[in-house]
Backbone:
């Protein structure tokens, strides 16, 4: 089980890298209007960056960083769709209570991983590339090139869709590592062994242990 926990949190790179790398200087706006999904990501990035630049000590304060993530990052993530895709067929079989419990623990796991990784922030340049999707589409893929100081460019892909009037993220891929794909396999194996309730209990156990260690990522 410990090995599963180690791999589970290693696979969190897709989320933690995207979340931490996108604290950086965003390339200037172009003259033409910016597509709404790109504007959402740009606004999210600039909001977090402005706070961190005003007071860099926030990176060492899990309580304040949690509040910042809750305010500026997580509202842009569709956790229902993310959770549904990650669980796959198991989501369809789950009760409403199981779905809610899973989303709670999965969201907390992502948050704790973000808090653990964000302390490694360094000055970063972010460039959002032109959309390849038709403007009227309700689903888009936003490509970004992220260049931390002294490190080669990292390619990040945000999968987003329109929910009402909002554009929300439902998957993140970093250098080919998809948040959804990597977790679907691990979670499915855990459910096969111990059931969905067993997976939820395991996530809760790891989250509680991580929270007791000051917000560190359990298994990292």
Residues:
């Amino acid at each position: 089980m410990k090995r599963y926990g180690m791999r589970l949190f290693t696979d969190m790179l897709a989320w933690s890298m995207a979340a931490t790398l996108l604290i950086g200087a965003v390339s200037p706006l172009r003259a033409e209007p910016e597509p709404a999904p790109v504007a959402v990501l740009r606004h999210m990035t600039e909001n977090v960056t402005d706070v961190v630049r005003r007071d860099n000590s926030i990176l060492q304060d899990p309580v304040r960083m949690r509040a910042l993530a809750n305010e500026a990052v997580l509202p842009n993530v569709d956790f229902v769709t993310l959770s549904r895709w990650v669980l796959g067929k198991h989501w369809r079989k789950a009760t409403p209570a199981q779905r809610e419990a899973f989303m709670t623990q999965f969201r907390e796991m992502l948050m704790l991983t973000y808090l653990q990784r964000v302390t490694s922030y360094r000055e970063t340049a972010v460039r959002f590339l032109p959309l390849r999707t038709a403007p009227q589409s309700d689903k888009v893929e936003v490509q970004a090139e992220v260049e931390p100081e002294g490190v080669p460019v990292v390619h990040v892909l945000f999968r987003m869709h329109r929910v009402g009037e909002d554009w929300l993220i439902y998957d993140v891929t970093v250098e080919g590592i998809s948040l959804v794909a990597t977790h679907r396999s691990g979670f499915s194996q855990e459910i096969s062994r111990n059931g969905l309730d067993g997976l939820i209990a395991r996530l809760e156990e790891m989250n509680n242990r991580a929270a007791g260690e000051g917000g560190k990522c359990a298994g990292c």
The CA atoms of residues 136 and 162 lie 10 Å apart. Helices lie at 2-10, 13-21, 36-54, 62-72, 79-87, 89-93, 96-117, 179-212.
